Amino acid sequence: MHRPSPTSASADTPAAGDPATTRVARRQQWAGVLLVLGGATLAAAAIVQPRGSDEELAVSLAESSAAWSSWGLLIMATALLQLPAVVMLRAAITSGPGVRLVAAGGGLTAASLVALFAFGQSHAEGATMVGSPPVSPELLEAFARTDSSVSLGVTAVLALIGFHLGWPLLLAGLARAGALPAPLAIVGGLAVLLSFFGAALGPLGEVALFVVAASSLAAVGLHVLRGSPPPS
């Protein structure tokens, strides 16, 4: 059963041009733009990330410092762009079908984006700190301690698992609420979920899956940008 959008003129919803409706429409437009841009930066990060190296992180950072710096900055940009979009999408669904899925998926995705920002920042700063090879034994030891720290492990788990589970839940909730077409939610959710297993397909397969996932999120952004405000 189709649920009317907040722009539908009725006794129960604000009329077009109403200040509340205008604010909802503007938030939706911003959410759409931010998702499109966030999808673009995520795809770029997937392309520039160094892969296929079995060396220690410090050595990889030194040998590919420009690529790791770019990756870290693009990941930080992705988090900064997608986080407010997720918050706005979450705030648009306050009752009715899908509200619990949206709340769970939105909260998990938002938390993962905060962790993802910290993860990207650590790699960008690490590439700058290590400098050019060879890497000194002291730096290797320092990075080994950092890699084994509990805080970094929790951040990595939250960034990866939260991102790859949070987005599918959020998209499913938006589809259940009538704010997103089911086919788009299914394709986007599956693309993000499957990209978690991209490493098993090798470097090219991993890049391809992440680019597809990023493009799917950008497509969601385009739909949000073009469509009417989600139901509240």
Radius of gyration using CA atoms only: 20 Å
Q: Could you describe the largest sheet, including whether it forms a barrel?
A: none
The number of helices is: 8
Distance between the termini: 15 Å
Q: Briefly note the structural class of the backbone.
A: mainly alpha
What is the ordering of alpha helices and beta strands? Answer: HHHHHHHH
From the spread of the alpha carbons, the general shape counts as: elongated
Poorly predicted sequence stretches spanning 5 or more consecutive residues: 1-14
Explain this structure to me?
The longest helix has 32 residues. By secondary structure, the chain is mainly α. The protein is built from 8 helices and no strands. It has one domain. The N terminus is likely disordered. α3 packs antiparallel against α4 and α4 packs antiparallel against α6.
Q: How do the helices and strands line up, and which of them pair or pack?
A:
Blueprint: H1 19-48, H2 57-63, H3 65-92, H4 99-130, H5 137-147, H6 150-176, H7 182-195, H8 202-226
Helix pairs in contact: 1-3, 1-8, 2-3, 2-4, 3-4, 4-6, 6-7, 7-8
Summarize the structure.
The protein has 232 residues and is an all-alpha fold. The chain has one domain.
Tags for this model:
75% helix; single chain; disordered N terminus; 232 residues; 8 helices; membrane; 0% strand; mainly alpha; transmembrane; DUF4386 family protein; transmembrane helix
